[in-house]
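so my prof wants the structure for this chain in the tokens format not the other one, which i didnt know existed until like an hour ago. anyway here's the sequence
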Amino acid sequence: MKYCVENDLSLFEFHDSILSFVSFDGRDLVVCAEHMNIHKDTPHNTYAYDMEITSAQITFSNLSSVTYKPVSVSETGADGQRVVFSGQEAMEHIVEELKYSLTVHHFKKQGNSGYSLCGCGIEPYFTIDFDANSVTVCWDEYIRKAWYERRRQYRHNVVLRTPKGDETVKLTIDCHEEVGSCGGSLDRPLSVNVGCTYGGREYWGHGRDYLWTDAFADLQKKLPQGVVLTCCLTCRHGNLCPVGSIINEVFCTKDVAVTKKSDLFFYTEDEGERAARTRQYCCLCEDYQPQADGFFTYSDYLPYLKKG
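here's what i got, hopefully its the right format
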């Protein structure tokens, strides 16, 4: 393989990586690792951010002192301590977990040759401890930025229209952005969470639409009855671009008649009109009107809002 690292787990981030079984000959355990990340500023990663490895092969050489402790096991020994599987019995459980594919929560080195892994798989949570003469990680290529490098968070002021009057609150947009390939273009977000606090309680909307529209609609559905999220994205005059929408961009058409998609072409393509009408999602003016059936708005917000 193109890259190999021996006995240095500090270069990697294992959280949420998936390990699956390759082989075990009674001495050496070989696993396949996916969704594993390597830190930036290492000889193996020349990118400016931590990168996700496409697929890595990890070899644990000369395993010994192996233990497997699932938290669901309720039996205790004479000393009152939870039973821990060891030796061959532990390896049987570990191989079974790997054949199922286990998710890593935490993996670290302990002492000179000891290692500890916490994860989930067949069992909802377990710990594996073992000694190994060496741990070798080999891989060929990278697929994208590490998941934590692709996370973005934005905060804006928005107005909630409530039975007691308008109330300004902080709106948090938590977006998991995906890079399609190394050096590639921005792809659609994997997940979007939109939340605010009202009446001392947090409310969150969740979605996967690359324009975040479904997450805004989901938040509105979760707010108490009579509380309306008012902003340009939820306004009947806030239209998306008919020839290619981008995140956090709508066009205000409160002063013109728009009854179909093609009516928007001039207002979104003419340079002067576009500059005058461009708004961000969380902008708001006194002419706000909620989207409703019977009034054309080029947006998926209302369909998402009505969706069960």
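also thought this was worth mentioning. The CA atoms of residues 205 and 219 lie 4 Å apart.
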